[in-house]
Amino acid sequence: MEFIKELLSHISAENVVRGGYIIMAIIVFAETGLLAGFFLPGDSMLVTAGVFAARGDLNIYTLIALLTVCAIIGDAVGYAIGRQAGKALFSRPDSRFFKKKYLDETHAFYERHGGKTIIFARFVPIVRTFAPTIAGVAAMPYSRFVIFNVFGGFFWVFSMTMLGYLLGSFVPDIDKNIDKVIIVIILISILPIVWKAVQERFFKPKVVPVVEASNQNFEQPKSAAEPPEQVR
Predict the structure, then answer these.
(1) Which end is more exposed in the chain, N or C (fewer Cβ atoms within 10 Å of the end residue's Cβ)?
(2) What is the pTM of this model?
(3) How many helices (H) and strands (E) in the chain?
């Protein structure tokens, strides 16, 4: 509860409007482009911004255009980090803002969904921060990555801000109860993480360490005589 209270204090109506487009652009970029940005409130901030765009405090078109560009650039930076310095990152010790297990979990997500991870991960906290880095380490062709990145970035920003915009347009006094809306968004966004924890607790799926997986091109050979398949 303390975490939620602290989060709400930073994404209140006043802070969203006062911070304006620049602060929101920095947050979206940092959450998707910097490995230390996994704790930032992307989903909740976008919905909140949409609500206050409906109220007239922000321009919805400027909001969507600017934040989409920042989301796309952020993922591109994450991809470059994974492509150029991936193995060095995997040897980093854990810290307050970096946990190697997040890379392992994102790799498992990548193994299940392939290139579509870049789209799906936009809606999963933590995973969206590390997904482009994993794609870079996996040597996904950049031309393929760009397609997923552009579509995923636009769809994430558009859907979240428009959700807030519609709530602000059709639900009376929603801006006076934005804290409740944010809590609902947070709960929905962490459902995949909760489900993953349940699976690990009761079904214990095997997660391949990222360093080992990267040395195997993120695919296990079907037999000793067969080379690993190309990354999807």
Answers:
(1) N
(2) 0.70
(3) 11, 0
Is 98 in a helix, a strand, or coil? strand
Which has the minimum average pLDDT: 43-57, 58-72, 173-187, 209-223?
A: 209-223
How is 186-203 classified by DSSP, letter by letter?
A: HHHHTHHHHHHHHHHHHT
The angle formed by the CA atoms of residues 93, 110 and 48, to the nearest 5 degrees, is 85
pLDDT above 90 for 186: no
For residues 192 and 106, is the Cβ–Cβ distance under 8 A? no
Question: What pLDDT, on the 0 to 100 scale, is given for residue 16?
Answer: 59
Instruction: Report the C-alpha dihedral over residues 26, 29, 30, 32, rounded to 10 degrees.
Output: 160
Q: What is the DSSP letter of 223?
A: S
Q: Which residue's entry shows tokens 């391949």?
A: 208
pLDDT per residue as tens digits for the range 195-225: 666 666 676 555 455 445 445 454 443 443 4
How far apart CA 218 and CA 159 sit, in angstroms, is 31
* 8 Å CB contact between 106 and 218: no
What CA–CA distance (Å, rounded) separates 177 from 101? Answer: 36
Query: Could you tell me the residue ranges of all domains in the chain?
Result: 2-215
Residue-wise pLDDT tens digits, 113-125: 677 778 888 888 7
Percent of residues in the chain assigned helix, strand, coil, to nearest 5: 75, 0, 25
Rg (CA), the chain: 18
